Amino acid sequence: FTVLPKQNGEIAIVTGGAKGLGYETVRQLTNLGVYVIIGKDVKIRLQCLSDV
């Protein structure tokens, strides 16, 4: 596997980040220093996208 460099200050939007594969993705991204926005439903996803 590849070790990724720190991504301090980057922003990621992850849908379905509350459980399963999405949760693990969020966990790994935050370990790399990424700010993560987690969207669960369509309204929240659209709001997150419009805010960024």
Rg on CA atoms, Å: 12 Å
Beta content = 15-25%
End-to-end span in angstroms? 31 Å
**Unreliable runs:** none
What is the arithmetic mean of pLDDT?
A: 81
Strand order of the largest sheet: 1-2
Q: How do the helices and strands follow one another from N- to C-terminus?
A: EHEH
Total count of strands: 2
Major sheet: 2 strands, parallel
Global shape: flat
Q: Decide which structural class fits the backbone.
A: alpha+beta
Count of separate DSSP helical elements? 2
How many domain regions? 1
Give the helix level as a range of percent.
40-55%
Précis, in short:
With 52 residues, the chain is an alpha+beta fold. The protein has helices at 20-31, 42-51, and strands at 11-15, 35-39. The protein has one domain.
Explain the overall architecture.
InterPro entries: NAD(P)-bd_dom_sf. The structure is a single chain. The longest helix has 12 residues, at 20-31. The chain has helices at 20-31, 42-51, and strands spanning 11-15, 35-39. The protein has one domain (11-51). The N and C termini lie far apart (31 Å). The chain contains 2 helices and 2 strands. It has a two-stranded parallel sheet. The protein is of the alpha+beta class. The model has no long low-confidence stretch (mean pLDDT 81).
Question: Topology, please?
Answer:
Layout: E1 11-15, H1 20-31, E2 35-39, H2 42-51
Parallel strand pairs: 1-2
List keywords for this structure.
two-stranded parallel ribbon; 52 residues; 2 strands; single chain; 19% strand; alpha+beta; 2 helices
